[in-house]
Amino acid sequence: MTGSRTPISVLAILGDAPQLAVIMEWIRRRGLVVNIVSTAAEGLRAHGETSADLVLIGLPLPDARSAELIAGLRRQDPRAIIVVVGTDADIRSQLQALELGAHEYILDPIDGRKDLLFALGISLGVRKGDTQLRVLRTAEAATAEWKAIVAGCHDMKLAMGKLRQICERTTARSVPTVLLTGEIGTGKRLVARAIHYNGGRRNRAFVEVTCAVPSQVLHSQLFGHERDALPDARATRQGLLELVNGGTIFLDEVGAIPIELQADLLSAIEDKQIRRFGGTQPIHVDVQIIASTRRDLATMVKRGELRADLYHRLNVVTAELPPLRERGDDIIAIAEALITGLAAECGIAPPPLSEDARVALKTFRWPGNIRELRNELERIVLFGSDDVITAESFRRTTGNAVVAVDASRPSLAVAVTGERCPLEEIERELIRQALVRCGNVSKTARYLDLTRQTLLYRMKKYGFVSPSNPGFFDEKDV
To answer: What is the pLDDT of residues 251-290, one digit of tens each?
Structure first.
């Protein structure tokens, strides 16, 4: 006995859009069941009677605005897959469409016909996909909203503004390669997820791969292998570039990728083709690449450690994430968000930060950045017994020195904790922060109540006066 698959159904609410009707007719000839209506009222009635696998809305509509229609469709079926084409008073950009609940958005059905067909294919794939996987993606997407990323400081605001603009202006077919740079622990993974879940491929798979692994392991992960191509390869294995086709791969620490794999990665990005290890046939792949690095890739190119052509393909859109110590008041907002999340996981009320803890957070250098901050706060929330987190709380969990200096009060307030507190380290960090705050030597000297020559002497002592430290001084100051 042979079974038959239920045909995929599409409800097209097109208004006065004959060009979309032509596309719907083409889709119908591909074996899909297409129901075309002209008004929002007819669309809601048709969807209420039989939920379609996908709803296509062509704007503008004669009897309703898009926000009202999308809300009505969601009330009928919270899982409705909605693709919007065109503009009206509610939707004039991809961001607005996403915020209202659309899965895909195409501005112009004529110029973007291929984009529309690609978007329909992706959206139908989501509807027909595994239910549990969709639930997991929805949960992960909820933590990857732009508003979940603290971006109050100037450098972070610039980086996030650029990335949001890229997400708003691209479609599923035209996603660019993105390179995130910055020190370890600055939040590159979180930003990568935000790019994916707010971009053109947000309804497809998102996978993270660490490149700092042995060459053979990484090759097998990314490109797969044929049966018997390796000693233990008893079956053919698809690589992640093949499995995530249509989605996004986040290559963490891309600067660590072995030189012998770089040509293969370049081919995947540039030619959209890969070959499994031991295979001879090219396999088409279409994957957005988001990469991160803490290394200077341009320097690696000069040293012959990274192919120049791969570097240029990775370096299409670049955003540098600043270290935590340079983010000013952002650190308090980040800490409070982390405390709220950690406390919720433990089932307790989030303990507030005392004033000296706030000063300490902004004073400490945090070499491990947000990752280190989270680890510190996790220990405090798990093992702390106080109702309020103080500067002393950090010493009790780690034994590290935390020095808080608040010069905004009428009398200087200094809080020192920890088993050790080297004076030179305190002086060095105080001068570093003053230089960042003031911007040049003369202003910094006045701020610290030092002579200019005394400050220059200390800057040389701590390595702040050198060609590798631009921005802290003018060459004439040396």
So the answer is: 999 999 999 999 999 999 999 999 998 888 999 999 999 9
**3-class DSSP string for 185-216:** CCCHHHHHHHHHHCCCCCCCCEEEEECCCCHH
Residue 476 in this model has a pLDDT that exceeds 60: no
Report which of 175, 74, 164 is spatially closest to residue 119, judged by C-alpha positions. Answer: 175
pTM > 0.85? no
Could you tell me if 457 and 464 are in contact, meaning their C-beta atoms sit under 8 angstroms apart?
A: no
Judged by DSSP in three states, 34 sits in strand
CATH code for the domain defined by 422-478: 1.10.10
- Tens digits of residue pLDDT in 329-369: 999 999 999 999 889 888 889 999 999 889 888 878 888 89
Mean pLDDT for all residues in the chain = 82
> What tokens were used for 428?
């060095």
At the topology level of CATH, where does 9-129 sit? Rossmann fold (3.40.50)
Burial of residue 303 (number of CB atoms within 10 Å: 0-12, 13-18, 19+): exposed
Residues pairing with 291 in the sheet: 179, 251
As given in the structure block, the two tokens for residue 315 are 């370096």
Q: How confident is the model at residue 321 (pLDDT cuts 50, 70, 90)?
A: very high
Q: Which residues pair with 225 in a beta bridge?
A: 237, 277
CB 384 within 8 A of CB 393: yes
237: enclosing H helix or E strand: strand 237-238
Pick the CATH number of 146-320 from 3.20.20.30, 3.90.180.10, 3.40.50.300, 3.30.465.10: 3.40.50.300
Total length of the chain: 478
What is the C-alpha to C-alpha distance for residues 249 and 192, in angstroms, rounded to an integer? 9
Strand order in the sheet with 104-106: 33-37, 9-13, 54-58, 82-85, 104-106
| Domain 323-421 architecture | Orthogonal Bundle (1.10)
pLDDT at 472: 45
Distance (Å, whole) CA 247 – CA 389: 42
> Which are the contacts of 244, defined by CB distance < 8 A and separation ≥ 6?
204, 205, 206, 207, 287
Q: By C-alpha distance, which of 279, 281, 221 is closest to 249?
A: 221
Task: Encode 318-355: b = buried (16+ Cβ within 10 Å), e = exposed.
Answer: ebebbbbbebbebbbebbbebbebbeeeeeeebbebbe
Structure tokens at 202: 């947000």
